[in-house]
Design brief:
alpha/beta, TIM Barrel, 8-stranded parallel barrel, two-stranded antiparallel ribbon, 10 helices
Length: 257
């Protein structure tokens, strides 16, 4: 690993716990269900999140260009460069590694699906991004979601076998950080994390019924050895995103709930 990449990763995992509590506001057209209620006014959400000082924040390049200026340099910025939909109707790269560097990003991210008919296409997309990002000493963070195509509508799954496969796919294409759904079981997630030579962080998951439920989920992922999480709707979907983020930071960084 080159020095430039190490510097950027050290910023992202800069908390003394060496874990990551980041927030994603990159929910866009891939969801194909309209804008989530908590992200109608993204600049307002960003301001509330910055008050709680997340370890990093992930967004698309357009929002970074138009809304991140007041906070530039204060918090690590991760640009999501790729989008997909669970049914594979969308598989697109939206930003290059060079664009991420020009925006001052500390890492480039890509959301992909594995399993299903387009798995190789997704992995090639990430492998190409890794090659491009390495030219700029830019860390590559891949958000990987295994799917089950056996039903009428494909669905994202989080059983141990498929999460293990997702992690291995991320390793093999050269990702520097891998985000996957938590399996829901400490022992199985611990076994998966132990196989990875790069940090594994948990996805924030679908909207929980309560904040306490989401915090328990995240506490288990950290107990299993996960290096933290990137969380979306379970923070900005709450009535008080600033307070919700502070609670997640307590859990992920080992200070209790």
């Amino acid at each position: 690993m080159g020095l430039g990449k190490q510097v950027r990763l050290n910023r992202i995992f800069g908390h003394p716990s060496r874990r990551l509590c980041s927030v994603a506001v990159d929910h866009f057209c891939a969801y194909q269900k309209g804008l989530p209620a908590g992200l109608i006014n993204v600049p307002d959400v960003i301001d509330k999140l910055v008050q709680a000082q997340p370890d990093a924040i992930t967004m698309h390049k357009g929002m970074a260009k138009s809304a991140w200026g007041p906070y530039a340099g204060c918090i690590p910025l991760i640009i999501n460069s790729a989008i997909f939909s669970g049914d594979d109707n969308l598989i697109e790269q939206m930003a290059s590694a060079e664009e991420v560097v020009r925006l001052g990003g500390d890492a480039v991210a890509a959301a992909i699906g594995v399993r299903g008919p387009n798995e190789a296409r997704y992995l090639k997309l990430v492998a190409n991004l890794v090659r491009e990002a390495d030219r700029f000493e830019l860390p590559m963070m891949v958000h990987i979601y295994p799917r089950d195509f056996s039903g009428v509508v494909p669905r994202i799954v989080h059983d141990p076998e498929n999460i293990m496969w997702a992690v291995r796919c991320g390793i093999e294409v050269g990702a520097d950080v891998i985000k996957v759904p938590y399996t829901g079981d400490v022992d199985s997630f611990r076994e998966i994390v132990a196989t990875s030579p790069v940090p594994v962080v948990a996805a924030g998951g679908p909207k929980a019924d309560t904040l306490e439920q989401a915090l328990r989920y995240m506490g288990e992922a950290v107990e299993a050895g996960g290096r933290g999480a990137t969380i979306g709707r379970n923070i900005w979907g709450m009535s008080d995103p600033t307070a919700a983020l502070l609670r997640f930071k307590e859990v992920i960084h080992g200070c209790g709930v």
